């Protein structure tokens, strides 16, 4: 049987074609000085020639077992697509991961599991994919609890970018310190004379929403108006309620709430920030610099995720919060004089 017609070339095939033992082939493939010293140069050249001619590719899982690790980190996203577009919210995380991996001379493996019902199938049904890497970084706004429980139970080293609630145990993560930065923005608003606040957003469900709300409650107690998207009210209805309650500043959980409130305020004849101040809690940089808010340390979070895995901290369920940079902007102004 001609080598080029073989469905899968093995080390045994290489040994047979080259006329050497399988151990010799293994020595050549491992490329270790102490082993190669036992293989004549002519024999090594003959084995390498057969490898090249047959297109043999070593089984990465088998090599990992023999060598004690491949220096490879898997990256899995729960978003619909990998964040390769520079405008994508998750792209800076991936850029930070890549930078630190290069610094550490580590390869990255992008894990793209199959889809179930139009969504990613997840990792729990594809354990063999995980075996291709030594550890894994998880990206995405929403991560199924059962996936995190599976990873915790498997003992496979992983770290989540973004805080996650316990799932069969603590979940290793690197996350933004939302509570502290929201508290700092509330204090900045108070310094401008604001006393009547509103929070526009879910404030529950996804951990990042919960953390934003926790920061708001820590700073304001229950003394604020909560505008919930699930109520079905339009931004125009929110503006009417804001005026009825005497609110002068709104903390907008995400960009969609910020944009909707700004547009509705304009339609109602209100100036921002003259009549109503808006503060963005999205964590995304506003290219114009007009929005008051903060910027997530996304690139640093990606770098730190790699560091946690390489340093072995993931095995101790390491959890770390990184500070966010305040963006002064112009959408937070002095409280209007209602006297």
Automatic annotation (TrEMBL):
Family annotation (InterPro entries): HTH_LacI (IPR000843), LacI/GalR-like_sensor (IPR046335), Lambda_DNA-bd_dom_sf (IPR010982), Peripla_BP_I (IPR028082)
SMART domains for this protein: HTH_LACI
GO MF: DNA-binding transcription factor activity; transcription cis-regulatory region binding
Keywords carried by this UniProt record: DNA-binding, Repressor, Transcription, Transcription regulation
SUPFAM superfamilies the record matches: lambda repressor-like DNA-binding domains (SSF47413), Periplasmic binding protein-like I (SSF53822)
Domain HTH lacI-type: 9-67
Highest taxon of the lineage: Bacteria
Protein name: HTH lacI-type domain-containing protein
């Amino acid at each position: 049987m001609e080598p080029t017609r073989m469905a899968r070339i093995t080390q045994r095939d290489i040994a047979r074609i080259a006329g050497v033992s399988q151990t010799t082939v293994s020595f050549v493939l491992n490329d270790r000085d102490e082993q190669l010293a036992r293989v004549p140069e002519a024999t090594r050249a003959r084995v390498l020639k057969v490898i090249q001619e047959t297109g043999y590719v070593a089984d990465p899982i088998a090599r990992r077992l023999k060598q004690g690790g491949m220096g490879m980190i898997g990256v899995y996203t729960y978003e619909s697509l990998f964040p390769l577009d520079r405008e994508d919210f998750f792209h800076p995380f991936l850029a930070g991961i890549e930078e630190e991996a290069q610094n550490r001379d580590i390869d990255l493996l992008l894990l793209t599991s199959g889809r179930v019902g139009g969504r990613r199938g997840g990792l729990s049904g594809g354990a063999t994919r995980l075996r291709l890497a030594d550890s894994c970084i998880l990206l995405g706004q929403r991560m199924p609890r059962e996936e995190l429980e599976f990873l915790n139970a498997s003992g496979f080293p992983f770290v989540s970018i973004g805080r996650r609630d316990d799932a069969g145990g603590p979940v290793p993560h690197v996350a933004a310190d939302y509570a502290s930065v929201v508290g700092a923005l509330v204090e900045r608003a108070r310094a401008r004379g604001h006393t009547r606040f509103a929070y526009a957003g879910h404030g529950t469900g996804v951990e990042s929403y919960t953390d934003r709300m926790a920061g708001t409650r820590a700073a304001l107690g229950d003394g604020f108006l909560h505008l919930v998207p699930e109520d079905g009210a339009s931004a125009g209805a929110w503006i009417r309620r804001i005026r009825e309650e005497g609110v002068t500043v709104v903390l907008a959980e995400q960009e969609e709430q910020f944009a909707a409130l700004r547009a509705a305020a304009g339609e109602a004849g209100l100036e921002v920030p003259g009549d109503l101040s808006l503060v963005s809690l999205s964590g995304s940089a506003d290219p114009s610099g007009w929005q008051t808010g903060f910027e997530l340390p996304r690139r640093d979070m990606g770098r730190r995720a790699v560091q946690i895995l390489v340093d072995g901290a993931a095995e101790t369920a390491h959890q770390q919060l990184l500070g966010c940079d305040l963006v002064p902007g112009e959408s937070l102004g002095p409280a209007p004089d209602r006297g």
